[in-house]
Amino acid sequence: MNAGSAAAGATAGAAAASSPGGAAPNAPLDPASNADPGLASDEQAETESNSSSPTDWSLLPKGRYGAGIGGDALGNTVLGGPVGPKKYFIRFRATQSSQIESVTFPFLSADYPGYGAGTGGNWTLKLIADDGSENHFPTGPALAVRSVSAMPTSSAARTITFSSAPTTVEGVLYHLVMENIDANPTANYFSINSWVRLSFTEGGQLNPQFADSDWGSGYFHAGAWMNCKNSCPIAEIAYANGMRQGMSYGEASYVCPPGQGNCSSEQLVGRIDGPTRMVRERITITGGDKTVCGIGIRLLRNPGPASDLFVSLRDGANVEIASTRVEAAEVAVGPAPTYSLPATWDDLGQKARWVTAEFDDIHSLIDGQTYYLQFASMQGTYWAWVNRRLTPEYAYSSATAFVDGWAEYTIDGTSWLPLGRVGYQSDLQFFLTTVELPEDESGGGSDDRSQSHPPQGGPMFGAP
Fold this sequence. Notes:
464 residues, mainly beta, 27 strands
């Protein structure tokens, strides 16, 4: 696991985002004040559009299908050491009423100096309730505890099980709290890796795939809990009923390693420029039909004159079935990547921002069929960074990332190749907005509004 350079303080800086290798029946717990079976408030509000549909679908419940994760690089939190905190939490809203079987996460230890040292430190993993406040911090006694012995070697996917498995309640917030309890935590310590957004000026939701309250992290420092507002935990929670919950994007694409001879700069970051340089997400629908009404993508454009960003949804025969556009003025302006070392935060896409657009009507995507979400510009240059998923190579399950497709690019307008340093494992930072149709629109008919589908939350909400 390439951890980059640590920063002083409770949370270290962004890590170099190369391949994260590595040495490798209780009663239900119900802090009921946090139960929330519905969508988070920041997921309910959607921009209205002029629709030609008989139903005003802009007012219908929405979901998201796609990666929906926005980030730039790995970042770590040191538990112990000269300046690091001793406690760190992963906050999650349980997707299951079931026992927790195990927790998997990236673990950095003494074999990465600065990120860990000594023995790695003895520590505990606890399940703790949420305090119900606006900040959503851990509170109260541990609902379950696991003591973990020191380990001096790192692992991209370290798995810990509880000795007495706790049972969660679906819709309730909990915290997985890791605490360095070593007799000498200054000398024996470890780090936890997360996927981070480097910009501290980018507003809005961290990841459109889920509410910030439902999947987040924080640490205990100077006598108080603090949220890591730009940090998304990389972790997988395995339930005894076979379901999984989590997020496992954890590698950026910005430079070709010296030893990777089949890598070229063209494949690292998606360039959108003129009629020949385009990017797209190739998608094969799973989990039932999807009814979609719009898109979101995180990207930037270079300074200077630029046309709008043209968005085309196309079927498996490359025939356009829907289109929309994002005005150039709505897209953040920033520099192009340099593809060189030492990399800067601009090379990692820190100035990229989320933009959204809606189609003129809703469209049904059929289970098992392939589609392409394509992005083009007639003037000016846009850049779209990809995130690499850590499944299956690093032992995270398909429930923790979008595995229904991959990002692609073209430089001649005809031939498409996989985008990202590692082909077929990287996704655009994108999503399709889905819509739930009312029952009276689920009957016959030949147009795209002829079927009713539930909102699609995407794989990060938990899946088998």
